[in-house]
Amino acid sequence: MVEWTRRRFLQASALAGGAMMLPGIMQAAWAAGSDKPELETVRVGFIPLTDCAPVAIAALKGFDKKYGITIVPTKEASWAAVRDKLVAGELDAAHILYGLLYGLELGIAGKATPMANLMTLNQNGQAITLSMDLAEQGIRDAEGLHKQVSQQAPGTYTFAHTFPTGTHAMWLYYWLASAGINPFDDVRTVVVPPPQMVMNMRIGNMVGFCVGEPWNARAINDRIGFTAATSQAIWPDHPEKILGTRSAWVAQHPNTARALVSAVMEAQRWIDASPENKRETAQILARRAWLNTKEQYLTGRMLGAYDNGLGDRWQDSHPIRFFDEGAVSYPWHSDGMWFLTQFRRWGLLKSDPDYAALASRINRTDIWQEAATAVGGITAPTSPMRSSTLMDGTVWNGTDPKAYARNFAIHRTEA
Predict the structure, then answer these.
(1) Is the pLDDT of residue 88 over 70?
(2) Rounded distance, CA 363 to CA 325, Å?
(3) Range 277-299 average pLDDT
(4) Contact criterion met (CB below 8 Å) for 266 and 59
């Protein structure tokens, strides 16, 4: 498998190079005539999380206007609300959980609806928080948790994630299982919207949760929880939120889809351009219209500076990333296939799907390529597959997904 390196990513193709040399001409070409966006206004849903940043910046910094559209961000209360409004057509696109979008396509996250992943919005930046009650019992990590869980009746401890097929559920399940805890048999899991995580832990509804920032940092600040694991410790540079929509919407508005991805891609580049831009992004997101929280809960982890709440501090080598010279945004087929393997592993799918065909249909690399050309200085990888090594040493590269899904000691798939 050919790995897509940062160096290769920086080597723009001749077409992209032309875009860099003649930006005015290229941008005009994408915003006029037959290439003009079909829609002037694009409604994009988001959940108040740090990783909605590219949508916020695209709208507030005017990157949307550059490509002939106006992004109207719509704040939603839960991932279920995002799902329902997206499927009903009340939203044109959304900042959405990778696994939620794939679950919709398969009919296991709601009414089966053909979906499209236009781009990845970010990598990394989520975490698993455990309660200070567990810390006081000497529990600091998954291994310590396993010892405690094994001494109690099944279901004694409750953990929360944000959606049954979502990324947070998959990170939580993977982390628990890596320590010998069956997330379906040994503990109880519940769904809680991200902004309600801290409050629910405070009143004792669960002893742990997996969610995006700033809610893990908020739990530390409120002294009710500590970070037991980051999601990047589970899978370094994992895909997280994506820009999702319905397949039919892309078919009806291909130029608008390209313009939307272009604007968000430019926003990603702006955010990652400097620490100052990241700090400004944190200031923006802290406002009432976005996350309605304190800037201090956002800035540290956005800059990769971590404090686990128990005295450990470190500069993370895989912090939340939005651009990374454009590499973050590419909708890798292998990323989508990984979520399918986990759906199969945990019995959410009763049979093996056509992994490659589904990923190829959902992950719209064609739209991404058009947008990358419009933005300039970005080129596609040589293969839509990439190789990653997860926390347990398991290598995922998209090869033989059926065997991969069945190769875990703890699973719910049939023999």
Answers:
(1) yes
(2) 20
(3) 97
(4) no
Q: Are 285 and 50 in contact (CB under 8 A)?
A: yes
pTM above 0.90, yes or no: yes
Instruction: For the chain, give the secondary structure using H, E and C.
Output: CCCCCHHHHHCCCHHHHHHHHCHHHHHHHHCCHHHCCCCCEEEEEECCCHHHHHHHHHHHCCHHHHCCCEEEEEECCCHHHHHHHHHHCCCCEEEEEHHHHHHHHHCCCCCCCCEEEEEECCECCEEEEEEHHHHHCCCCCHHHHHHHHHCCCCCCCEEEECCCCCHHHHHHHHHHHHCCCCCCCCCEEEECCHHHHHHHHHCCCCCEEEEECCHHHHHHHCCCEEEEEEHHHHCCCCECEEEEEEHHHHHHCHHHHHHHHHHHHHHHHHHHCCHHHHHHHHHHHCCCCCCCCCCHHHHHHHCCEEECCCCCEEECCCCCECCCCCHHHCCCHHHHHHHHHHHHHCCCCCCCCCHHHHHHHHECHHHHHHHHHHHCCCCCCCCCCCCEECCCCCEECCCCHHHHHHCCCCCCCCC
Contacts 24+ apart (CB under 8 A), 139-145: 140/228, 140/310, 141/179, 141/228, 141/229, 142/175, 142/176, 142/178, 142/179, 142/181, 142/228, 142/229, 143/179, 145/176, 145/179, 145/181, 145/208, 145/228
Cα–Cα dist 69/415, whole Å: 51
Could you tell me the pLDDT band of residue 34, with boundaries at 50, 70 and 90?
confident
Short-list 370, 265, 364, CA closest to 29: 370
The whole-angstrom separation of Cα 149 and Cα 140 is 13
Amino acid identity at 134: L
User: Predicted confidence band at 414 (pLDDT cuts at 50, 70, 90)?
Assistant: low
pLDDT digits (tens, 9 = 90+) for 347-405: 999 999 999 999 999 999 999 999 999 999 998 899 999 999 999 999 999 999 999 99
Residue 271: CB atoms within 10 Å: 24
Q: CA-CA-CA-CA torsion for 173, 178, 181, 182, nearest 10 degrees?
A: 50
